[in-house]
Structure formats: C-alpha cells, structure tokens
Amino acid sequence: MNQECVIQVNNLKKQFGSKVAVKNVSFEIKKGEIFGLLGPNGAGKTTILRMMTTLLRQDAGNVLLNGFDTLTQSRLARQQFSITGQTAAIDQDLTARENLMIFGKLNGLTHTAAKARAAELLTDFDLTQSADQTLATFSGGMRRRLDLAISLIGKPAILFLDEPTTGLDPRTRMQMWQAIQKLVAEGSTVLLTTQYLEEADHLADRIALIDHGGTPNDLKQQIGGMQLRIEVTSLQEQQPAKKLIQDTLALPVSVNDRTLTVLLDHTKMRKVSQILGRLQDAAIAINNFAVETPPLDDVFLKLTVGKN
C-alpha cells in the first residue's frame, strides 16, 4: 500500500467564548487508510471534522488535504473530498436512480457516465430492486445507503464519514462496512467518526482517541495489558468462580451471564495459570478460558474517564 500522507492536521485549536473545544490536535492519515476519530460526547470530534471540511474556521493550526490548505486554498481543498453525515441530504420526491443521476452530473459526469455510475452504486448498495421507486417508500436504512452512495458518486480521494451507521440495523451496517472497504481497496482514504466502538475496531487501521492514538491493538495495550475471560458451564458456578478469581488476583471481576472477565495488569499475568489450577481443584467446570486483548469498549472507557 502506498504510504503517502494525504491528510495532515497540525496543532488544531478552536475556542467558543471561554470554552476550549479543540486544543492542539495533530494527526496524519496515509493514502488508502481508514482512520477512526473517537472520543466521548463533547470531546470535539464534530468540531474537528467541521474544521477539516472548511465548514468552520480554526483559531490556530492548519489542515492539509492532498497538500491543499483548507484556509488559504479552500476551493481546491474542497475538491479533494466528499462527506457523509448522519442524515440523508437527498430529494424525497425523486427516485434513487434520479438522485444519483443528478449528483453525478453535479460532479461533472456526462449523462452516459452518470447513468453507468448510478447503476454501479445501486448494485453495490443493494438498491437495484428499489432504484426506480420514490424515496417515500424507502426505509431509514435504505436512505442511509443511498446517502453514502451519493457521496461516492465522484470516487472521492478522501471521504469523511460522520457516524454513517448510527441507528442502522446490523445487516445494513454490515453492507455499509463492505462498501467502505471496497472504496478503500480502490484507493480512497477514509476518516470515520463513530459511536460504535466495534465498528472502529473492525474497520479502522488506526485510531485517534482525542489525546491518544495508535492502532486498535496499540490502544488496547495502553490500558494495562490483557483480559482474562472465563466461561463457566452453569450459572450456579458463577459466584464461586468470581470469588476464586478475586481472591487470586485482587482485581475487579465483571460478570455477564456465565462469562467472567478481568483486566490484567502486567504484574498479574503470572497468576493466570494458578486460577486454572484452582478452578480445577474446586471442581468448577468451565467451557472457555482465554487470555486476550480487551475489547475497544473497555479501552474507550478507561482512556476517556474524567474527560467529559
């Protein structure tokens, strides 16, 4: 993969009155990368995105999109990207095909090229059977898929996705993920904000968590090590297993049905084998025993505690 840097954010700052919304944010995104921008509500994700897309002027710092400065070369910078938000900016009185055709022509495509591109995107987003129906018949998920399809009409070099799958059912979210991955495979670069942490974990090559950053695995390691996950065979064995783990590790244990999890710091890793032996000695039957990286949800909660 070409590692050319296509997005550069340098010491970005924004203040509204006495409230500092964004302070000294910097990151770079390489060509063909999916970059996740995460943070708790009110942390400044939307403000950062608005500055990057020229909708808001920063107080300090700069943003370069394919080398074009968003302040001093805003027209050229805007030509580098497309953006998809949480609501569909489409004409409700037109069909899906007509919407795509109009946006194709607005992006400089000929009638023939716009028609071909519309047909391609209708297929990619599983909208062919509904292509010639008015949008009044569309579900929320279908409209969201159409909105993303419209943002891809000109095959943008850079795509900004602002929580694109919020409120969608799992099947539609998976279709959106596949479409995003196909776009990246064709050479586009994506910046994604999302409230679904498993979405960032699944899609993103790297993640910026406001004042933290790295690959998903890097961030998982920052919270102090690994996670021990044990599934007991019956609910009756849940509490005895929890007490045994707590007595051995002196760490809090989370319980969900028959599954017990505990975040391990590096000093407790050597005691994991002791737990397995003690479970066997206590005749506590287990279905699963695993040491693994923790889910991104736990990383998010750990790294953002006290930052709201």
Automatic annotation (TrEMBL):
Domain ABC transporter, residue spans: 7-232
Membrane topology: Peripheral membrane protein
Any single GO CC term annotated in Swiss-Prot or TrEMBL for this entry: plasma membrane
InterPro entries in the cross-refs: AAA+_ATPase, ABC_transporter-like_ATP-bd, ABC_transporter-like_CS, ABC_transporter_ATP-binding, DrrA, DrrA1/2-like_C, P-loop_NTPase
Subcellular localization(s) per the UniProt record: Cell membrane
GO MF terms held by the record: ATP binding; ATP hydrolysis activity
Keywords: ATP-binding, Cell membrane, Membrane, Nucleotide-binding, Translocase, Transport
Domain of life: Bacteria
A Pfam cross-reference name: ABC_tran
GO BP term, example: doxorubicin transport
Family according to the record: Belongs to the ABC transporter superfamily. Drug exporter-1 (DrugE1) (TC 3.A.1.105) family.
Name assigned to this protein: Abc transporteratp-binding protein
Source species of the chain: Pediococcus cellicola
